[in-house]
Amino acid sequence: MDAYIPQNLDQPTRYIVFTGDELAVVVIPLMVLTVTLNFMVGLLVGGFALWLLRKFKQNSSLHRMKWAAYYALPVYIFRFKATPPSHLRELVG
Is residue 73 a contact partner of residue 65, using CB atoms and an 8 Å limit? Predict the structure, then answer.
């Protein structure tokens, strides 16, 4: 039995050809739109979402997506104890 040995320690786990977040971005729209509309529409939306995610992650990590979500989404989604609300732009200090 051959064991898979990653080339780098930081190499993410892959499912077929996708990482975990890419797989979720492809499969969820594909499943929802296949049930509600059409398989081809789900495939196109999933492919576009995958392209958009890979373009957004290019030369950075998921931290950039977390920062964008923190400032774009409503306050009640991210309730951090140590950070101020996202609508406060200036800090005292």
Answer: no
